[in-house]
Amino acid sequence: MVDTGNSTERGLCKILYFLIDCGEQMKILATEVLTILHEQNLKISACESFTGGMFSNKLTNIPGSSKVFVGSFISYSETMKKNIVKVSKRVIKKYGVISQECAEEMVLKTQKLLKSHLTISFTGNAGPTSLENKNVGTAYISILFLGRLESFKFEMKTEDRYKFKIGAVNFAFKEILNLIKK
């Protein structure tokens, strides 16, 4: 593209390049996760909140994902977290839905319900305003792999919900690879 000096056009180009680069990176990471899990005859599941199914979508975009991917819950609301995933009211009341404790309970309950070898959960604040005294761009991600629980706080300084979700999902794929390659 020719630089016309138009700042709006340059801004759109930066966003487009970001999305293309992240999309390709996620495809590569998702493929590697599925390949390793398939080779080890292991299954994966997810419980997503602010990511709205993006993690699961990236997995299911890969041919053959049904051999490895069990399924997911999109527990966007507190009601879904309590009534479907069975996150305890005590955890939500004491720590809030945007907390490591909630992410851990989401991952443990999802693994129990879907019986996968690797389960991941996402909970966070994509904005536009602070929630539960948590800044926009704050997330908690928990991964349960063969009985081993790992939790991460992910922060990204952006008010762009889509970029935040992409960042969190990319981060999660990298952390999964760190765990399953050990």
TrEMBL record:
<feature type="domain" description="CinA C-terminal">
    <location>
        <begin position="29"/>
        <end position="178"/>
    </location>
</feature>
<dbReference type="InterPro" id="IPR036653">
    <property type="entry name" value="CinA-like_C"/>
</dbReference>
<protein>
    <submittedName>
        <fullName>Competence damage-inducible protein A</fullName>
    </submittedName>
</protein>
<dbReference type="Pfam" id="PF02464">
    <property type="entry name" value="CinA"/>
</dbReference>
<dbReference type="InterPro" id="IPR008136">
    <property type="entry name" value="CinA_C"/>
</dbReference>
